[in-house]
Amino acid sequence: NKKAFVELLFWKSPAIVCEMTKGYSSLQEGEGTTRSRVPPWSPQEEQELRELYWKYKEVEGGDIIAAILAHLPMPGRTRRQVVKQLVRM
């Protein structure tokens, strides 16, 4: 690749470096960064998250995020995803 020197000027993730060395479009489905695999929050999920937050925010001595995760109807959300979504909202 004659223009690879231009790409070297910018920060790369390991997945991008692998793609550069093996050829573009060499990554298989499911490989690469996890950002692309995180499902977006639907409006219904955001509303449920908002309701659970208001319900459990007044509980003293308890972990609000743990209580929200225990009562979320949609499985598969991580603690980090819930915290990021609450901050974003």
Automatic annotation (TrEMBL):
InterPro entries, A to Z: Timeless
UniProt GO cellular component terms: replication fork protection complex
GO MF term list: DNA binding
Biological process per Gene Ontology, one example term: replication fork arrest
Pfam families, sorted: HTH_TIMELESS (PF26019)
Superkingdom in the source lineage: Eukaryota
Protein's recorded name: TIM protein
Phylogenetic placement of the source organism: Eukaryota, Metazoa, Chordata, Craniata, Vertebrata
